[in-house]
UniProtKB/TrEMBL annotation:
Top-level taxon of the source organism: Bacteria
NCBIfam families for this protein: GGDEF (TIGR00254)
UniProt domain GGDEF: residue ranges: 167-298
Gene3D superfamilies, alphabetized: 3.30.70.270, EAL domain
Lineage: Bacteria, Pseudomonadati, Pseudomonadota, Alphaproteobacteria, Sphingomonadales
Pfam (any one): GGDEF
Protein name: GGDEF-domain containing protein
Domain EAL residues, every copy: 307-564
GO molecular function, one term: cyclic-guanylate-specific phosphodiesterase activity
InterPro entries: Cyclic-di-GMP_PDE-like (IPR050706), EAL_dom (IPR001633), EAL_sf (IPR035919), GGDEF_dom (IPR000160), Nucleotide_cyclase (IPR029787), Rev_trsase/Diguanyl_cyclase (IPR043128)
Length: 569
């Protein structure tokens, strides 16, 4: 019914008494929904005068004593506000026989002046509410394990009843190690079975009152009260790790799985659950690196927020071309001439201070910004060397630029296409660029490295292996890869004059390079004695503060010109 006094055309017939009007029953039977005419009596009771068949099926007590409280309150409001119809929702019955109803009630005057009657209409919303509850259940539950999902976990934690006695609240996040690789090998169906089995083991390890949820593909969350603070958390972590002591049997397979654990503890659940989960995620990220349970510290959140702010600023700087290249010379030790320059990305923040590469490069790698950053560096280096040629009267400058490429870019990007486009856009040959790849990037996926390096060689671009000797090189792959230069890591050059072991390492790397037909570049050369010793050992090129610190483009071009007149060493 709508707002206002109800005025349907009800025709009175003969009356048999002053308090019992007889109504045209066929009129109410014509209504398509359960309907009845009622007269309120004392509070909590009413008299049923007429009803249709649909209403009778609901078996609502005629006396009103067992009527839903929502209906009785609606009748009271209707009597109090006779010009307005009242709407309400209620439930009849219990269990599977329960019916969800939405009703409307309003006064119904008759032509005899009897205004004590009310028209009650009901709409059965049982199926609708059942569908809504099922959808709701799906929204807050994980379909695979039946556990709460992230949204359901947050709701349960927010509405959990307070416990007895003082206790802190802990949220512990668990991430399965190597699950994606395991899933690839055993297949997605077996992977699902593994997740279900892990969930069962975790549930069996928890105490009564703990809440377990699956918050991601291979991530679980646990909410628990801990009276003993960190000691209780570490005991809980010990029990959880015990779930992974024995392999999981999946069909005919036995699969060993480990996990990383991160936790956030709050004195009470007064911190927003979303913030506490975020704190636990910060601890979990650290746990993946340390391989032990990590408990959130506020300083970690500050660091995380700073990193996120730098990530946003770095993204803007790349998009707006506000980075620059600095150039450090590569010196041929035998002649003292400049063979080339390593192009290094530099970033000055909006507030004017320079952000160290050791700070923004890891952020770029974590966020994926290393790919556009690497693309920018290659394109910028090609542009600068083309500009140098123009400043040199159109004659090519006799040097090359070396640009670092991240392992992440090697996997995600088409480096050969990036180099090809940079060369074409600036009209220079491939020999003017050298691409530096770390040892871990090359040896980590030798087949991919072989494919990429072969494409680069077709462009006449040279390739250097950076930080050689710091990883675990596979010499068989090293022999196959089309590399031009091995860069000897600075850790072997530092103090090599006083350390015979380092001299032996450098001599071995130099001998290996000669056998494989490669050149060598020593990084971190800071003294003349180091330069002389490296030259005596046969090292081809040197790079370090002895020769020059990284400089801007104009200074680097001038440095090259001066080297033509006077050798550097």
């Amino acid at each position: 019914m709508g707002k206002g006094r109800a005025t349907p055309a009800i025709m009175p017939i003969d009356r048999t008494g002053e308090d019992r009007p007889l109504l045209f029953v066929g009129w109410i039977d014509a209504l398509p929904v359960p309907a009845a005419l009622i007269r309120p009596l004392t509070r909590g009771n009413f008299r049923l005068h007429a009803s249709n068949t649909a209403f009778d099926r609901l078996k609502l007590s005629p006396a009103g004593a067992d009527a839903p409280i929502e209906l009785l309150r609606a009748i009271e409001r209707a009597e109090q506000y006779p010009d307005l119809s009242q709407e309400f929702s209620c439930q009849l019955g219990e269990g599977v026989a329960a019916r969800d109803l939405r009703g409307s009630i309003g006064p119904l005057p008759t032509e005899t002046g009897d205004d004590g009657l009310f028209l009650l209409t009901l709409i059965d919303r049982t199926q609708e509410m059942m569908t809504e509850r099922n959808l709701r259940r799906e929204l807050v539950s994980d379909s695979l394990t039946g556990l709460p999902n992230r949204a359901g976990f947050a709701e349960l934690v927010e509405h959990r009843a307070p416990g007895d006695g003082p206790a802190d609240h802990a949220i512990l996040l668990l991430d399965l190690a190597r699950f994606s690789r395991i899933n690839e090998h055993i297949g997605p169906m077996a992977g699902d079975e593994l997740i279900i089995t892990v969930a069962r083991r975790l549930k069996s390890s928890l105490r009564s009152g703990d809440i377990l949820a699956r918050t991601g593909g291979d991530e679980f969350a646990i909410s628990s009260r801990v009276a003993g603070g960190r000691a209780d958390v570490r005991e809980m972590a010990r029990r959880i790790r015990g779930c992974f002591d024995h392999p999981f049997r999946i069909g005919e397979l036995k699969v060993s799985v480990d996990c990383a654990l991160g936790c956030a503890i709050q004195p009470a659940i007064d911190t927003a659950i979303g913030d506490q989960i975020r704190h636990a995620q910060i601890a979990l990220k650290r746990a993946k690196q340390t391989d032990r349970i990590e408990i959130y510290e506020p300083e970690a959140a500050i660091l995380s927020d700073n990193r996120f702010g730098l990530e946003t600023a770095l993204r803007n700087a790349i998009e707006e071309d506000r980075l620059r290249l600095a150039f450090q010379p590569l010196i041929e030790l035998a002649s003292g001439r400049v063979a080339g320059f390593e192009a290094l990305a530099r970033w000055d923040h909006d507030d004017g201070h320079a952000v160290s590469p050791t700070e923004f490069i890891p952020i770029a790698e974590d966020s994926g910004l290393i790919v556009p950053l690497g693309q920018w560096a290659i394109a910028k280096a090609a542009s600068v060397i083309a500009d140098w040629d123009r400043q040199n009267g159109g004659e090519p400058v006799d040097c090359y630029f070396s640009v670092n490429v991240s392992a992440i870019q090697l996997i995600r990007d088409d480096i050969a296409a990036v180099v090809r486009n940079a060369l074409a856009d600036n009209g220079i040959g491939g020999e003017r660029l050298m691409i530096e790849l770390t040892e871990s990037a090359i040896i980590g996926d030798p087949d991919l490295a072989m494919s990429v390096l072969s494409e680069l060689k077709t462009l006449d671009t040279r390739v250097a292996m950076d930080d050689f000797g710091t990883g675990y090189s596979n010499l068989a792959y090293l022999q196959r890869l089309p590399l031009d230069v091995l860069k000897i890591d600075r850790s072997f050059v530092e103090h090599m004059v006083e350390d015979r072991d380092k001299v032996a390492i450098v001599r071995t790397i130099q001998s290996l390079a000669e056998v494989l037909g490669m050149k060598t570049t020593a990084e971190g050369v800071e003294t003349a004695d180091q330069a002389r010793l490296l030259s005596a050992l046969g090292c081809d090129f040197g790079q370090g503060f002895l020769f020059a610190r990284p400089m801007d483009s104009a200074a680097a071009l001038q440095y090259w010109r001066q080297s033509l007149v006077r050798p550097i060493i």
